[in-house]
Amino acid sequence: MPKLIVGKKRAEFPYLTPLDVALYSLGERALYSSVKFGRARGIMDDSMRYGHNKRVYVEGRGLVDPTCFLLEKDTSVKLEKGATIGSRIAKRFSEHFGAGFQNSFLLRIAWKLAQNLVASSANLPLASTFSSKNFRVSSISTKVLIVGGGLAGLGAALSLNECGVDCVVVDAHNDFGGRTRYATYPFLNGVTYSDFIKETVKNLTIRGVRTLSGVFCGVYEEGAGVILGHDVVYKCSFEKIIFATGSRSVVPLLTGNDLPGVISCDYALTLAHHDALKGKALLYSEDPWADVVEQILARKEGLEITKVHPTEVKAILGKNEVQGVLLNNGKRLRVNHFIYCTKRQPSFELPSQAGVEYSYQRGILMANIFDDGSTRVKNVWIAGSATGLFELESSFYHGRAVGYALAENKEEAKKFLEKLKKEILL
């Protein structure tokens, strides 16, 4: 098994363990320093992936995104989490010049000084030793590109494949399924979410549907896109695109909400799947998904869960990482992890970039779409919880309907839309 080395700490992990999970298991939750005052920061959520999110320095490789980097051999990591001279100076004078000290006052009067402070606070010096990696270039051509391999994306792929329409499914995670990929909880006909996902991906592969996982999905415009993998850049051409980017929980507005150890419910499932979540955790429960998360985490050995309603929490306590929670009744709870499960919002960035409009309704962002998932933007469709309308089982049915509608199989699309209406009424 590959060994991870961080300073004097070292431990062996199963082959292809994500780097962020291994670091969390070692107790290294603070992975880097923020630009603002050099405060310690950690991974809070892995539902979104960005090609430039390279935060951790791996010897012999350079700065990497720890959520994408997999342990294949012995790996040595350097973490610089302490406050630098630049961040200490900024913090010392911040009370006089406001929170935007680094980015406003100094920028106006002395850019050179500000530049050095920001660079110092951002933990960037190691980047100078990074040797750029040559990416090979490949091409992908398909009739329909599906961005997102969760329930909705896979549902759409099933429908398209049944109608003989060529499609490619891409997902940022190393495993398909979105937030349900590690959810060992009953879904359809008693089958768990995770098993359902595995079986669906297996069936799609057998049927010849192309899938790409662990890739960053880039700009889409007029039938062209860029997909960035670990060592390859795919130039993608397509006729139509379905955004099935899912939804995510948003960090609650609480004191201490940026401390390492504050994690989303989706990320908690990832860590728990790899047995990296131990100790005491508080589950901040605002969304029905929290009930599923609680039942899954409750079965994990070495993990104690306390679920509370948002109205009960006043602040998250800790200096460099989560150490406890202050409740509104004055009581303090000692916990190692603060897991937030707030009302879910659609992952709207890519659809919005493509021109799809969203509006804010009843506390949720909702895409302006037609019943079949089509939008006012030509050849752009949205499926599942990325719409802001559907979740879980309904999301899967909507993906099925969108796939059939795009394939112009109106009868089958209508069946799933009717099933959706019944689900919503229930």
Automatic annotation (TrEMBL):
<feature type="domain" description="FAD/NAD(P)-binding">
    <location>
        <begin position="143"/>
        <end position="262"/>
    </location>
</feature>
<dbReference type="GO" id="GO:0016491">
    <property type="term" value="F:oxidoreductase activity"/>
</dbReference>
<keyword id="KW-0560">Oxidoreductase</keyword>
<dbReference type="Pfam" id="PF07992">
    <property type="entry name" value="Pyr_redox_2"/>
</dbReference>
<dbReference type="InterPro" id="IPR023753">
    <property type="entry name" value="FAD/NAD-binding_dom"/>
</dbReference>
<protein>
    <recommendedName>
        <fullName>FAD/NAD(P)-binding domain-containing protein</fullName>
    </recommendedName>
</protein>
<dbReference type="InterPro" id="IPR036188">
    <property type="entry name" value="FAD/NAD-bd_sf"/>
</dbReference>
<dbReference type="InterPro" id="IPR051691">
    <property type="entry name" value="Metab_Enz_Cyan_OpOx_G3PDH"/>
</dbReference>
